[in-house]
Amino acid sequence: MLRMESETGWWLITHPDHARLAGDFAAAWGNAQFRRPEPRARVLKGIACHDDGWAARDAHPSITRQGRPSAFSTELVGKYSAFEEIDIADYLAVRDHAVRIIAEDDPYAGLLISMHTYNLLTAHADRSTIVPDGLVLLDAFLDRLRTYQGELRAAIAADGSLAAEAKTEQAIVEHFRLLQACDNLSLLTCVAWDGPADLLHPLPLNDGGTAEVQVLPIGPRHFRLTPWPFAEPEVGFAFPARHVVGKLFADSGELEAAFAAAPVERLTVKLSV
């Protein structure tokens, strides 16, 4: 779950809906300067479906020790330090499921998701918030994920429907970085980020170079991107969210009931040159 604070409570966005927004960004990505992703359908699937494994968990939201919805928020942008609030064995099972449900159908999309997962749990995870037994589970998970990535790379190498260029390590890394970029832009949107940010990695250009994209908020869920990676000078996107009234909840059951009763509404984000 992702959360965005309002005057009277919280907007809650599920992981799959956040990922669909990332996929919408990726589908619009590309112009005279920035390279469009290819193989398009398989890259877009990896980006749009990278959090599908969270659907069942997000249907039953829980609270933090302070009584707020347990969700990704502004405090976690750029880091991952909330492990004290979750059962790590359950969390890793969800992460594993999120990779495999896509990879079993599409190894290319699944590899991108597995690389995203690995990066999140290595480069961005705060290991100091994980108890020693949890670290053992995490490191074993990362070992299994590396092995699985090798299996996916072998399947990709043997896939005759893919062009040789799409199978190169450079292409795969570029697509992983686009997933990261669109995921981060969706996170900034879904938590109503209000400070300068960037899209994490240098992104590929049509001339063979790369560029880092900077993000500047210029209004509520309205961002300026520099350099500009889309074809139109301004683009807008909608995504579903539910609003729950109240900042603190007595228990997870109270939050879940409020979430289930809340109608699904459509929020928007605008991106400008």
Say how many strands there are. Answer: 9
- Count of DSSP-assigned helices: 8
Main-sheet strand order equals 1-2-8-9-7-6-3
- Which sheet architecture does the biggest sheet show? 7 strands, mixed
Mean pLDDT reading: 94
Q: Tell me the helix content.
A: 40-55%
Taken in chain order, the helices and strands follow as EEHHHHHHHEEEEEEHE
Structural class: alpha+beta
Radius of gyration: 19 Å
Shape: globular
Instruction: Note the gap between the termini.
Output: 30 Å
Strand content: 15-25%
Unreliable stretches covering 5 or more consecutive residues: none
Give a topology summary.
Layout: E1 2-5, E2 9-13, H1 15-28, H2 40-48, H3 55-58, H4 88-103, H5 107-122, H6 132-157, H7 169-190, E3 197-198, E4 203-204, E5 210-211, E6 214-219, E7 222-226, E8 234-245, H8 252-261, E9 264-272
Parallel strand pairs: 7-9
Antiparallel strand pairs: 1-2, 2-8, 3-6, 4-5, 6-7, 8-9
Helix pairs in contact: 1-2, 1-7, 2-5, 4-5, 4-6, 5-6, 5-7
